[in-house]
Amino acid sequence: MARFTILLMFCGLLPLVPTQAQSVKYDISKIYGSSQHDAFTSMVTYKGAYYCAFRSGEHHVYGEDGISRIMVSEDAKDWNESATIALKGIDLRDPKLSVTADGRLMVLIGGSDYEDKTLRGMLTRVSFSNDGRHFSKPEPVEIDPAVRTDFDWLWSVTWYGDTGYGILYQRETESSCLVKTEDGISYSLVSQLNLDG
């Protein structure tokens, strides 16, 4: 904490004279619990309600059992399950919610195909809802042929105007690129991202 404070002081973000510490109270509550490995959350507001998506599976990795659960709350206190998305034989991972330009709730889900403990491929799926409860069958996203591989993972999409932008991680080449979409299904290359490590 001391290093962080000093850095902020050098950047001119904090006064040089120490101020009295303020206490902040946080209320923490669990919205879902099971004996499964529940993790990798995402949250948005949609049509006046809060939506939270997460992966639920037997293990962190190496499975065909990962499903996506979507919870809903009107007040961010009382939560109910609104949908479950699953694909037989595919480990659905890291569901990310967004609201499309045309007003649909979209969930982007990484899909890993394992044989025993060997990853055979990765393909992101997408599903849509008009009411936050009924989602379309997850369908594979279409990645620009100029960069597509058998181990693509498209991360969270952020919408700006009529266009959604996301980062495509490519495991085989350990590279990433910025892609864009107008329909949430087809993604074209914007730029390669030259990131070390």
- Please state roughly what percent of the residues sit in beta strands, choosing from under 5%, 5-15%, 15-25%, 25-35%, 35-45% or over 45%: over 45%
Intertermini distance: 26 Å
Percentage of helical residues? under 10%
Largest sheet: 5 strands, antiparallel
User: Order of SSEs, N→C?
Assistant: HEEEEEEEEEEEEEE
- Total of helices: 1
Describe the global form.
Answer: globular
According to DSSP, the number of beta strands is: 14
Low-confidence stretches: 1-14
Mean pLDDT: 85
Please state the oligomeric state of the protein chains shown: single chain
Structural class: mainly beta
Rg calculated over all Cα atoms: 20 Å
Task: Kindly describe this structure.
This protein has about 200 residues and is mainly beta. It has one helix at about 1-10; strands spanning about 35-45, 50-55, 65-75, 80-85, 90-100, 105-115, 120, 125-130, 140, 140-145, 150-160, 165-170, 175-180, 185-195.
